[in-house]
Design brief:
Blueprint: H1 15-49, H2 53-60, H3 62-79, H4 87-104, H5 109-130, H6 137-156, H7 158-161, E1 167-168, H8 176-198, H9 201-211, H10 213-218, H11 223-249, E2 251-252, H12 254-257, H13 260-273, H14 279-298, H15 303-317
Helix pairs in contact: 1-8, 2-8, 3-8, 3-11, 3-13, 3-14, 4-5, 4-6, 4-11, 5-11, 8-11, 9-11, 13-14, 13-15
Length: 334
């Protein structure tokens, strides 16, 4: 008890503790930034170390391509918890939009890819807004149906897409090294976006919806708007990803551009890398890009089976991702 009239004891100084906490946050942030910059710096020199055009186009290109695609799904499926089986549809729309604008209408390739991003952004916003009332498997089925509808429209719009005859892009030749650095730039943008979301209140809102949508709504988080935004941002990345796929393949048809296997693969990468993580999906995408391309080249008949077995084992053995273990250093598990 303090005697009447006596001065109250002054509170302990907190400036030191605040400074220390700020320093710890800055040090952690710098470590994370350094890890990301170092990883992309290594990826940037790969074409210099392996300059063979065939190696770049058949193996190296798919490393940043898978990173961008994985981070795209990570925004909607990792942060906001929307289990989407419809990203393969957005991939196909992006591929056809880029190809049609660049080949049929003579647009610059970069402009065509920007338009593809806007188209898939709009589709993502619409799908996210309409499907906000669906959760879990119901949302997954709805997105799967939406992707199938996109493929069906592409298949039947023969005057624009070529239908079953496909869409050739043979005379639009882009050097493999340019495609690689285009994919790397897109992967860096996607990773930067995911990193910014993880450090922002937007990421907290996404995670609140993922953990418990009802509690999030009671806390003032508007699920319809945030889930629509998450799917829209995710879709905006898939447009240029599809465009790069079309330019690298030189020929697309509804079966190759709309491929459900890619959707399964990126879900696997996010699960193994860690849902809502930044660095984990990047590392896993780098590793699995090589695994999937080797499997496609040498075991093409069993490519789907290999993906399914790996996904089944990953869900059972590492549900929190490879960077969710306690022995992983903190500057890597982010």
């Amino acid at each position: 008890m303090t005697a009447p009239g006596a001065a109250l004891p002054s509170p302990p100084p907190v400036s030191g503790s605040r400074t220390r906490r700020l320093w710890v946050r800055l040090r952690t942030w710098n470590s994370h930034r350094s890890v990301l910059l170092g990883t992309f710096a290594v990826l940037a020199v790969l074409p210099i170390l392996f300059p063979d055009p065939y190696t770049i186009s058949t193996l190296l290109f798919f490393i940043p391509w898978y990173i961008a695609m994985t981070q795209s799904w990570n925004i909607s499926g990792g942060f906001s918890g929307q289990l989407s089986f419809g990203h393969w549809g957005l991939l196909g729309v992006g591929a056809y939009t880029t190809a049609i604008l660049a080949v049929t209408f003579g647009y610059n390739v970069l402009i065509a890819m920007v338009v593809a991003a806007l188209v898939t952004l709009a589709l993502g916003l619409i799908i996210g807004y309409i499907g906000v009332g669906l959760r879990g498997a119901y949302f997954a089925i709805a997105t799967l149906a939406a992707a199938a509808l996109m493929q069906l429209v592409t298949l039947n719009w023969q005057s624009l897409t070529g239908g079953t005859f496909g869409f050739p892009i043979f005379f639009l030749i882009i050097p493999p090294v340019d495609l690689y650095y285009g994919a790397l730039a897109l992967a860096a943008i996607a990773t930067l976006l995911v990193y910014a979301i993880s450090r922002n209140t937007l990421g907290l809102a996404f995670e609140a919806i993922r953990e418990n949508e009802d509690v999030a709504r009671a806390s003032g988080v508007y699920p319809r708007g945030f889930k629509s935004l998450a799917f829209g941002l995710s879709g905006a990345i898939m447009g240029p990803v599809g465009g790069l796929f079309a330019l690298s393949a030189h020929y697309i048809d509804p079966s190759s551009a709309f491929n459900l296997l890619y959707n399964l693969q990126i879900i696997l990468m996010v699960v193994v890398g860690g849902r809502g993580k930044v660095f984990g999906p990047v590392v896993v995408a780098i590793l699995f890009a090589w695994v999937f391309e080797v499997a496609l080249t040498n075991f093409s008949l069993y490519n789907d089976l290999i993906t399914g077995v790996i996904m089944f084992a990953a869900v059972l053995l590492i549900p929190r991702g490879v960077f969710g273990f306690r022995w992983v250093p903190s500057f890597l598990s982010f």
